[in-house]
Amino acid sequence: MTRHETNFTNASPFNSLVSVRRHPLDEQASHKLSTRVVAYTPGFEEVARLFERASNDLGTETNLGVIRRIMSNNPASVLAFARREGFDCAAPHAEGIIAWLPLTAAGHTALLNGTFNVQDPDPFHLTAQHEPSTAIYVWAIYAPGLAGGVGIAFDQMSSPLHRHADLYARAASISGRRLITTLGFEPLDTIQPTAPSGLYVFRKPGSPLGRPLYDSYPTPGQHYTVTVVRTHDDLAKVMAIRSAVYIGEQACPFEEEFDGNDFSSTHLIGYAGDEPAASLRVRCFATFAKVERLAVRQEYRRSRLAPLIVKAAHELCRMKGYARVYGHAQKGLVNFWRRAGARPFPGAREFAFSDYDYVEMLAEIEPHPNAIAVGADPYVIIRPEGRWHTTGVLERSGDRSTKRPKEGR
Description:
The chain is of the alpha+beta class. Helix content is 26%, strand content 22%. It folds into two domains: 25-210, Aminopeptidase; 215-371, Aminopeptidase, CATH 3.40.630. Mean pLDDT is 82; it is low at 1-22.
């Protein structure tokens, strides 16, 4: 989605054209941006001129009739940008534009189940001006050289009417995906596995989607969910699942199954409803993470729980900043791990342990744009494993008065 883009997205009447540095929307200082960029509500003639300009750049046409209907319903859904220097309110000349669709609850539901028509939205799915929205679909951005306007527009999308409305968008290309991830959007299907493919979300504070896949248990309406092990009771469930699968079915000796690494690992449990049905553990090394000990109870092996818990593990690794996930795949399960994104790599070795033959495999993943790293909020770093998205007990303790031990004690 740069000025060199050559195709519109199939999901929207026009594309997004803007180039920005890596900077999430909620971290952009709009008060500083406003010293260089002016944002205002344009007239339809200006909008038509800009969209015609965008169409000429991209070699396609825009449905101005749909845009006119949407602007008539809610003029605030389109914002124009111009450089502050030389701006004349009596004769404004827009240089960029952003169009966004505030959605009703019905519109939000339609977006999530794949029935929302982004080319010609149903009026029932859109809020009118001054009505609160349940979600916001970022329809198009055209702001070459005026990326600051996007940050200013985000302020409007975060007004009291839209404070908790998550933002959604689609990427039409690799550059488009780079843009929206730069702005802090993430693939929705990492949070809701049943979400339409290609849909990205920017979650607001207090968002109902504020839980990643590896912390999705329990979620109303979701039958298969996953959570990180945090209690002795959780770890007992993991041991029960692995005992049934590896010791019971594969006759693995106890000391080989429980190999001394369980207290130095992060474990995940997959649930079917409220029934613990799958488990997996992750061990972290300097330059890679290792996914291992995947176990699914026999009665759930035809469900989608196995790929779901592996996907959750990859998301956990992304959040920890890893780009490589290593594993040992049983030779009979190589195709499963291929579908999960792993491949035998050049020089991968085949070997055997506990009476089964294995091959080394590697999955290349993209670290999360907000991966935990030195420089992150120290309160975020001390939150419970896999709960970096929500306030932890230790930061709540920060409201108490501080103490210092006496010297020499």
